[in-house]
Amino acid sequence: MADSTRQGWAIWVVGLPGSGKSNLARAVAEEFGSRGEEVVWLQMDARRKVYFPTPTYSSDEREEAYRLFAQEAAGLTRSGVNVVMDGAAYKVAFREYARSLIPRFAEVHVICTLENAMQREGKRPEGLVMAGLYAKALERKRSGKQFPGLGEVIGVDVPFEENPAAEFAICNDEIPKQETRRRTLDFLTQWLSRGAVPDGQ
Asked: Is the pLDDT of residue 3 over 60?
Protein backbone atom coordinates (compact mmCIF):
# COMPACT_ATOMS: atom_id res chain seq x y z
CA MET A 1 0.00 0.00 0.00
CA ALA A 2 1.29 3.48 -0.88
CA ASP A 3 2.74 5.55 1.94
CA SER A 4 1.92 9.21 1.38
CA THR A 5 4.31 10.20 4.16
CA ARG A 6 7.36 9.16 2.13
CA GLN A 7 8.63 10.34 -1.22
CA GLY A 8 8.71 7.66 -3.88
CA TRP A 9 11.46 7.45 -6.47
CA ALA A 10 11.28 7.50 -10.26
CA ILE A 11 13.61 5.86 -12.75
CA TRP A 12 13.21 6.88 -16.40
CA VAL A 13 14.55 4.34 -18.90
CA VAL A 14 15.15 6.09 -22.22
CA GLY A 15 16.65 5.33 -25.62
CA LEU A 16 15.92 4.75 -29.28
CA PRO A 17 12.91 2.69 -30.36
CA GLY A 18 14.24 -0.87 -30.54
CA SER A 19 17.04 -0.23 -28.05
CA GLY A 20 15.56 -2.62 -25.51
CA LYS A 21 14.45 0.07 -23.08
CA SER A 22 10.95 -1.33 -22.58
CA ASN A 23 12.22 -4.82 -21.76
CA LEU A 24 14.68 -3.29 -19.32
CA ALA A 25 12.08 -0.99 -17.73
CA ARG A 26 9.72 -3.91 -17.21
CA ALA A 27 12.51 -6.03 -15.70
CA VAL A 28 13.51 -3.22 -13.31
CA ALA A 29 9.90 -2.75 -12.19
CA GLU A 30 9.43 -6.48 -11.67
CA GLU A 31 12.68 -6.86 -9.73
CA PHE A 32 12.00 -4.03 -7.30
CA GLY A 33 8.42 -5.21 -6.95
CA SER A 34 9.72 -8.66 -5.97
CA ARG A 35 11.77 -6.95 -3.26
CA GLY A 36 8.60 -5.65 -1.63
CA GLU A 37 8.61 -2.16 -3.16
CA GLU A 38 5.39 -0.71 -4.54
CA VAL A 39 6.33 0.00 -8.14
CA VAL A 40 4.31 1.21 -11.11
CA TRP A 41 5.62 0.55 -14.63
CA LEU A 42 4.47 3.69 -16.46
CA GLN A 43 4.54 3.21 -20.24
CA MET A 44 4.52 6.31 -22.39
CA ASP A 45 3.00 4.44 -25.34
CA ALA A 46 0.00 3.42 -23.22
CA ARG A 47 -0.40 6.72 -21.37
CA ARG A 48 -0.26 8.79 -24.56
CA LYS A 49 -3.43 7.07 -25.76
CA VAL A 50 -5.09 8.19 -22.52
CA TYR A 51 -3.85 11.77 -22.79
CA PHE A 52 -4.86 12.01 -26.46
CA PRO A 53 -7.62 9.52 -27.39
CA THR A 54 -7.77 11.09 -30.86
CA PRO A 55 -4.09 11.79 -31.56
CA THR A 56 -2.74 14.07 -34.25
CA TYR A 57 0.87 12.80 -33.89
CA SER A 58 2.18 16.35 -34.10
CA SER A 59 5.41 17.47 -32.43
CA ASP A 60 3.42 19.84 -30.18
CA GLU A 61 1.23 16.96 -29.05
CA ARG A 62 4.29 14.83 -28.30
CA GLU A 63 5.79 17.61 -26.17
CA GLU A 64 2.53 17.94 -24.24
CA ALA A 65 2.34 14.17 -23.79
CA TYR A 66 5.79 14.11 -22.22
CA ARG A 67 4.86 17.00 -19.94
CA LEU A 68 1.78 15.10 -18.74
CA PHE A 69 3.81 11.90 -18.41
CA ALA A 70 6.35 13.60 -16.12
CA GLN A 71 3.58 15.18 -14.06
CA GLU A 72 1.79 11.85 -13.68
CA ALA A 73 4.99 10.19 -12.47
CA ALA A 74 5.63 13.05 -10.06
CA GLY A 75 2.14 12.73 -8.63
CA LEU A 76 2.67 9.03 -7.99
CA THR A 77 5.98 9.63 -6.22
CA ARG A 78 4.39 12.28 -4.01
CA SER A 79 1.91 9.58 -2.93
CA GLY A 80 4.78 7.31 -1.92
CA VAL A 81 4.62 5.13 -5.03
CA ASN A 82 7.80 4.26 -6.91
CA VAL A 83 7.72 4.59 -10.70
CA VAL A 84 9.68 3.07 -13.55
CA MET A 85 9.06 5.35 -16.51
CA ASP A 86 9.29 3.78 -19.96
CA GLY A 87 9.50 6.25 -22.82
CA ALA A 88 12.02 7.26 -25.47
CA ALA A 89 12.09 10.92 -24.37
CA TYR A 90 14.32 12.02 -27.23
CA LYS A 91 14.80 15.55 -25.87
CA VAL A 92 16.95 16.18 -22.80
CA ALA A 93 14.40 18.81 -21.79
CA PHE A 94 11.73 16.13 -21.31
CA ARG A 95 13.89 14.24 -18.83
CA GLU A 96 15.11 17.35 -17.06
CA TYR A 97 11.51 18.52 -16.59
CA ALA A 98 10.76 15.25 -14.80
CA ARG A 99 13.91 15.67 -12.74
CA SER A 100 12.75 19.14 -11.68
CA LEU A 101 9.49 17.66 -10.35
CA ILE A 102 10.81 14.50 -8.68
CA PRO A 103 13.41 14.71 -5.87
CA ARG A 104 14.44 11.04 -6.17
CA PHE A 105 14.95 10.73 -9.92
CA ALA A 106 17.38 8.79 -12.08
CA GLU A 107 17.77 8.64 -15.84
CA VAL A 108 18.90 5.33 -17.33
CA HIS A 109 19.96 5.62 -20.97
CA VAL A 110 20.03 2.40 -23.00
CA ILE A 111 22.51 2.99 -25.81
CA CYS A 112 22.77 1.08 -29.07
CA THR A 113 23.59 1.91 -32.66
CA LEU A 114 20.78 3.03 -34.92
CA GLU A 115 21.49 -0.03 -37.11
CA ASN A 116 20.94 -2.41 -34.21
CA ALA A 117 17.85 -0.54 -33.08
CA MET A 118 16.41 -0.78 -36.59
CA GLN A 119 17.13 -4.49 -36.79
CA ARG A 120 15.50 -5.20 -33.42
CA GLU A 121 12.51 -2.96 -34.04
CA GLY A 122 11.93 -4.59 -37.42
CA LYS A 123 11.24 -7.91 -35.66
CA ARG A 124 8.77 -6.40 -33.19
CA PRO A 125 5.10 -7.30 -33.73
CA GLU A 126 2.29 -4.77 -33.76
CA GLY A 127 1.40 -3.70 -30.23
CA LEU A 128 1.14 -0.41 -28.38
CA VAL A 129 3.46 0.99 -31.04
CA MET A 130 3.08 0.65 -34.80
CA ALA A 131 5.26 -2.14 -36.19
CA GLY A 132 7.98 -1.30 -38.71
CA LEU A 133 8.50 2.27 -37.52
CA TYR A 134 11.93 2.71 -39.03
CA ALA A 135 11.11 1.09 -42.37
CA LYS A 136 8.03 3.25 -42.75
CA ALA A 137 9.85 6.43 -41.70
CA LEU A 138 12.63 5.74 -44.21
CA GLU A 139 10.09 5.01 -46.95
CA ARG A 140 8.31 8.27 -46.14
CA LYS A 141 11.61 10.12 -46.34
CA ARG A 142 12.51 8.54 -49.70
CA SER A 143 9.18 8.69 -51.47
CA GLY A 144 6.93 11.02 -49.50
CA LYS A 145 4.46 8.20 -48.87
CA GLN A 146 2.38 8.87 -45.77
CA PHE A 147 1.48 6.28 -43.15
CA PRO A 148 -1.56 7.18 -41.00
CA GLY A 149 -0.62 7.34 -37.35
CA LEU A 150 3.12 7.60 -37.99
CA GLY A 151 4.58 10.66 -36.30
CA GLU A 152 8.20 11.75 -36.20
CA VAL A 153 10.42 8.70 -35.71
CA ILE A 154 13.40 9.11 -33.41
CA GLY A 155 16.65 8.37 -35.16
CA VAL A 156 15.22 9.09 -38.62
CA ASP A 157 13.21 12.32 -38.39
CA VAL A 158 14.57 13.67 -35.09
CA PRO A 159 17.80 12.85 -33.23
CA PHE A 160 17.99 11.33 -29.78
CA GLU A 161 19.69 13.85 -27.46
CA GLU A 162 22.18 12.29 -25.06
CA ASN A 163 22.23 13.72 -21.56
CA PRO A 164 25.59 14.16 -19.80
CA ALA A 165 23.67 14.34 -16.50
CA ALA A 166 22.16 10.85 -16.89
CA GLU A 167 22.75 8.82 -13.74
CA PHE A 168 23.49 5.65 -15.70
CA ALA A 169 24.13 4.74 -19.34
CA ILE A 170 24.70 1.29 -20.74
CA CYS A 171 25.52 0.18 -24.28
CA ASN A 172 23.86 -3.12 -25.09
CA ASP A 173 25.15 -3.58 -28.64
CA GLU A 174 27.37 -6.50 -27.68
CA ILE A 175 25.99 -7.83 -24.40
CA PRO A 176 22.89 -9.98 -23.83
CA LYS A 177 19.79 -8.46 -22.28
CA GLN A 178 20.38 -10.45 -19.07
CA GLU A 179 23.72 -8.66 -18.61
CA THR A 180 22.15 -5.29 -19.38
CA ARG A 181 19.56 -6.05 -16.72
CA ARG A 182 22.15 -7.18 -14.16
CA ARG A 183 24.41 -4.14 -14.55
CA THR A 184 21.48 -1.74 -14.44
CA LEU A 185 20.01 -3.33 -11.32
CA ASP A 186 23.42 -3.31 -9.63
CA PHE A 187 23.71 0.42 -10.28
CA LEU A 188 20.13 1.22 -9.22
CA THR A 189 20.44 -0.79 -6.01
CA GLN A 190 23.50 1.27 -5.07
CA TRP A 191 21.82 4.50 -6.16
CA LEU A 192 18.77 3.84 -4.00
CA SER A 193 20.90 2.87 -1.02
CA ARG A 194 22.46 6.33 -1.12
CA GLY A 195 19.06 7.97 -0.77
CA ALA A 196 19.43 9.78 -4.09
CA VAL A 197 17.93 13.02 -2.81
CA PRO A 198 19.86 16.04 -4.15
CA ASP A 199 21.11 18.72 -1.76
CA GLY A 200 18.43 21.24 -0.93
CA GLN A 201 15.53 18.85 -1.61
From this structure: no
Instruction: Provide the CATH number for the domain around residue 33.
Output: 3.40.50.300
Q: What's the Cα-to-Cα distance from 93 to each of 22, 56, 71, 102, 165, rounded to whole Å?
A: 20, 22, 14, 14, 12
3-state helix, strand, coil split of the chain in percent (to 5) is: 45, 15, 40
Q: Which amino acid is at 60?
A: D
Domain count, the chain: 1
Phi then psi for residue 135, to 5 deg, are: -60, -40
Rounded to an integer, what distance in angstroms lies between the CA atom of residue 104 and that of residue 12?
A: 11
CA 3 to chain CA centroid, Å, is: 25
d(CA 201, CA 197): 6
Band the pLDDT of 199: cuts 50, 70, 90.
very low
| Residue span of the structural domain in which 117 resides | 10-193
